[in-house]
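Need a sequence for this fold. Nothing fancy.
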């Protein structure tokens, strides 16, 4: 069992920045992939970015060049640095982990979510 706690959300003006954190506990030995999804009201949950233990990353096209995912394996933490935020980035952001890429996409463990609101 893996327990994820995500944090760092808040209210920010367009063009601003936020940094989300996701701390893992429990059976962390099996964690290979960590990532972030987001869900806006009335929309489906979508993958934002992911990273494996080796540091390989991928991003949704909508956030490329603006968001950066990273992780500290020793601290069992993943981060999502969000710059140049836009109103359309407003959503609840969820951390997720998986033991493999397929486990990450198909099953995995979820954090409780942190709200990001981009508004002037």
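Here you go.
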């Amino acid at each position: 069992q893996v327990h994820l706690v995500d944090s760092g959300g808040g209210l920010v003006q367009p063009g601003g920045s936020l940094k989300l954190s996701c701390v893992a506990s429990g059976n962390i030995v099996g964690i290979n992939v960590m990532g972030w999804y987001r869900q806006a009201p009335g929309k489906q949950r979508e993958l934002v970015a992911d990273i494996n233990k080796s540091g390989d990353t991928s991003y949704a096209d909508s956030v490329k060049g603006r968001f950066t995912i990273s992780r500290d394996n020793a601290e069992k933490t993943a981060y999502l640095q969000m710059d140049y935020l836009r109103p359309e980035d407003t959503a609840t952001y969820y951390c997720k982990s998986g033991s493999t890429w397929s486990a990450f996409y198909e099953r995995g463990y979820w954090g409780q979510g942190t709200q990001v609101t981009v508004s002037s």
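For context: The helical segments are 101-106.
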